[in-house]
Structure formats: C-alpha cells, structure tokens
C-alpha cells in the first residue's frame, strides 16, 4: 500500500462528505462521525490495532457481504473477533489503491463508496472493484460495520477469469 495513496484517500473523506451540500458545515454530529471514520482508517493504515480497537464498541459487529468464494466474507462480533478478522482480511490483499467516490452521513451513520484497485496476494492477480462501507456509531464508537463490494473482478483475482461464458458475438 502506498502511504501517499492511502493518506489521500483518508483526507478525501471529509471533502466528499461536504460535496454538494451547502449545509454540510452545520452538520456537526455527522462531521464528527466522518472524523471518527478517518481516525479508524488512519489507525488501520499505521497498524495501530490498539487505537483501532478503542474506536469500536464492545459488541461491535462486522459483516462483509459477498459470494462465499471470497475468503473475507462473513460476520464477526465483539472487539477481539472483529480485530482478528480485519487483520486476516487485510492479509489477503496488497497494493491497495482506494479512491473515495462519495461519502454520505446522516445522524450516527456514515456511508463510504469507493473504488479500489490492488492485488489478491495468493494469486498475484489484480482486481478493480467498487465497495460500500457502512459505519454505525453508538456513544462515539463504531457499533456496526457492514461492507458490500462488487465481486466479479475480485473473484477473477481469486479464481481466475470466468471462461465458461460464451464469447461475445461480433
């Protein structure tokens, strides 16, 4: 992971939250939640899992939604289980290059929509996918994290391109 690419991704979150909303400056609760999301990403990037754990509620729930062939699809509960899942899930990927597309925040919920390019470590194959992450906060900590990603490119990186489909007709 390039430190500059990841720093830009994290810094782009707040401007994306403000984009297109002239009243964004008055949304202090939502801005605070976006700031907490940025802090979480920063902790993960620098490998500071102690700070990352403190940002989560005791009963945190992590859910990655996608096809079962993707090794980091699943649901985990509690700080220790979630922290281990995140460490393991990141270990599958390398050369991650996330790009913020949109940030939406309402009350205690932040939605981040992004595009990410990188490689699946075990195969060395590249992927280029979009993902949506939903953070729900309770008492200033993440209580629920849900991620959904388009999976075709990631599945190709894991298993190889799907060659069972007929070739396009000219």
From TrEMBL:
Residues 37-144 form the SnoaL-like domain. GO terms for molecular function: isomerase activity. It comes from the Bacteria. InterPro entries: NTF2-like_dom_sf, SnoaL-like. This is Ketosteroid isomerase-related protein. It comes from Fimbriiglobus ruber. Gene3D superfamilies: 3.10.450.50. Keywords: Isomerase.
């Amino acid at each position: 992971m390039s430190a500059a690419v990841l720093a830009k991704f994290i810094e782009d979150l707040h401007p994306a939250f403000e984009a297109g909303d002239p009243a964004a400056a008055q949304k202090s609760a939502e801005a605070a939640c976006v700031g907490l999301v940025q802090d979480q990403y920063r902790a993960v990037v620098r490998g500071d899992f102690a700070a990352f754990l403190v940002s989560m509620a005791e009963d945190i729930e992590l859910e990655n939604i996608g096809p079962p062939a993707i090794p980091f699809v699943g649901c985990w509960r509690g700080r220790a289980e979630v922290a281990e899942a995140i460490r393991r899930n990141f270990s599958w990927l390398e050369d991650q290059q996330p790009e913020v597309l949109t940030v939406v925040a309402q009350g205690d919920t932040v939605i981040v929509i992004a595009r990410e390019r990188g490689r699946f470590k075990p195969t060395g194959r590249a992927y280029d996918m979009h993902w949506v992450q939903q953070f729900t906060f309770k008492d200033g900590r993440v209580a629920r994290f849900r991620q959904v990603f388009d999976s075709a490119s990631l599945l190709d990186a894991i298993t190889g391109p799907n060659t069972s489909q007929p070739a396009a007709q000219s």
